[in-house]
Design brief:
60% helix, 230 residues, mainly alpha, two-stranded antiparallel ribbon
Length: 230
């Protein structure tokens, strides 16, 4: 049962120790803070003062860290001779809580870049093949007065439609995967629509750059060369 902060201060509580249950007086109540991974809820925590210290939490200046740690070790040995001096940094401890997420992020980034590279190369090859197949059609259009812009649109519009179709198919799948991953966290962000819009926009830009380069190249070829065999 939750006890109001005003009533908790000054009351007694039992705590299990090496010497059995002991009674302690509550001298203060602090706000909830997270000391574990965001996958877990904030759990109750009791901070108590003991005669023999087991650990200390200190804020240090990092300018001369080695000398500071050396001095701390000497003081610890002189005060707590039976316990070895061991130290860790809070930022590194917090970082270790999310090692799995960092590893997944690196793997996902690697395969994302690999997929983009393979897709761009495949797309470039496909538009090159399409341009070669329509070489004579492009030549005839240019002879009849077609502009470079219209020729580029001729080669790019089908690829843009395919990218948009792929985006529509991938959108719900990506949403379900990301949402399922976020369900592992008790404290989590909400998925924003602009993230998917940004991903789709980047995919479209990569497509336009890849297809556009080859399309402009094909559109600027002298039509006499493509129609020479006719």
């Amino acid at each position: 049962m939750d006890i109001p902060k005003e009533r908790a201060v000054g009351s007694k509580m039992l705590s299990a120790t090496d010497d059995g249950d002991r009674e302690f007086e509550i001298v203060g109540v602090v706000s909830d803070f997270h000391y574990a991974s965001f996958k877990e809820k904030i759990a109750p925590l009791v901070l108590q003062r003991i005669a023999t210290p087991r650990r200390m939490l200190l804020r240090l200046e990092t300018g001369n860290l080695e000398d500071i740690l050396g001095s701390m070790q000497e003081i610890w040995k002189s005060s707590v001779a039976n316990t070895p001096f061991m130290h860790s940094f809070v930022d590194k401890d917090v970082e270790r809580l999310y090692e799995e997420e960092k590893r997944i992020g690196k793997i996902a980034a690697f395969f994302t870049l690999l997929a983009i590279l393979i897709s761009a190369l495949g797309l470039f090859g496909l538009v090159s093949y399409t341009a070669e197949q329509k070489k004579k059609e492009i030549g005839i259009r240019k002879v009849l007065g077609a502009s470079i812009n219209s020729v580029v649109q001729l080669l790019t519009k089908d690829f843009v439609k395919l990218v948009l179709l792929a985006f529509v198919i991938a959108l719900p799948i990506a949403y379900l995967i990301v949402n399922r991953w976020l369900e592992d966290f008790t404290y989590r962000i909400e998925i924003q629509w602009w993230v998917f819009a940004l991903a789709g926009g980047i995919a479209l830009i990569i497509t336009l750059l890849t297809v556009g380069i080859q399309s402009i190249k094909s559109a600027t070829v002298n039509p006499a060369k493509s129609l020479r065999t006719e």
